[in-house]
What does this fold into?
Amino acid sequence: MSQLQIQLQQTAEPLLNVQEMQFWLDKAVAWGQADSPDTRKDTCLHLSRLRDFLQQLLTHINNMNSTTETMKTLPLLGQFLGRLCWNPYVTTDATSRRLLFQCLWGLYTEHPGNAVERKANQWIRKVLCQLATEDEDAAAQTLMKHTGVPPEEYHLKVLRKRVALLQQSIGKSCSSLGDMNQRCSCDSLLAASEACVPLVTCPEAAPLIGALLQQPGTCVRAALSEDFLDALSSAYSSQRVSLEEQAVVSLWYHNLSSLEEAVLRLLECVLTKTGLTLQKLKQQLTESLLPKACAQHCSIFLVVNDIFRSILKQAEGAESVKYLIQIFTSCFLRELDLLQHQTSVPLKALFPQSPQSLLVPLVTLPSEMPQEAWRHHLNWLSGSLQRLTEEEEEGDGDSSSSTRGHHKVFDAWFLLVQCAHWVQAAVQLLVTSGPEDCGPLMWLLTFLPPPDQ
It folds into this structure.
């Protein structure tokens, strides 16, 4: 009995047929020992069955808890995959090549915890470079010898060239094709993003990563691998990869966890600092790219806004949190104004929970109307908020309507927190107002949501 059979039989629940695994390992060895017409014919005849087996192998790898565990159950797995990756008659088959990529990335460990996983990562990178820069060995060696280019430099240059060609292949989305019945390249996006999983920190792959992230989502087939997005998000948050601004925005658009992490990191950074001036706060918000991302994508703003709502509730209206939300909204509205000729997203879509009668009056800046109109505008705002509060109080007897009323009042208060420029305008007018004009302004300044909100 071979070593591979013994190892597989020691697995509690083997997912692979022992004899079939041994059969394919023997085939891979035989195919690699001789390049003859018979060998090529045998390889081609077995490709269909090989694809099925690679799919089973991929399932087995994905069911393991770690690369270390996988290598314990399949100690010859690296030899098997390596032989296939170096076989041009296997790798020229698109499906086999994709499955090999998936098996390799399934073995890749983002944070290796031992020597086995570190060694496996190094080997996977080497194999991926081979797959990406595959050339006829004799021709490549001759070229390197005559040009005097070191092998590492040669392969890096070829890798960059292949990355550029792959960029071109994914460059045409459905919207750029004249004939909608023409096959688009969106099918290749998933495969390309899967192939990038172990390469997200490689500088040579940066152009391809940027191109993948910025593909327009005009087609249902234009989906990126979740593993690719998660690996890229982890690498970016740990500063192991540098992304251009638009690539960061696209990453947040595609990956919710990455966006949430960026918002929470911003909150932690800002709220733990003392003595932060308005200018420095605006600078920090701008550098975070979040206001710009929110202006470009309504869905990003809705997520960020929801996080702010939740944090404000937990902080019970803490002034530092309110101030941050106010300045963030101000930066967001400024970015939105810069994009007004490019986007037509209505305010209602950006603030769906806010009372619509109050939305435009609150979002409008005091500088956008004559100062003599401020008092009338503020009196109207104060009266509208008072009526909303009274309607909520009148509905206290009905639990369902009371709950809806409480939410309405909180949503109105949250919008006022975001648009605190009118609170500041009320303070400014209060200084010069007589006793008879102070009532509505004072009410506006003391307006709070229900205690249970």
Notes: The chain has 25 helices and no strands. The CA atoms of residues 294 and 300 lie 5 Å apart. Confidence is low (pLDDT under 50) at residues 4-14, 174-183.
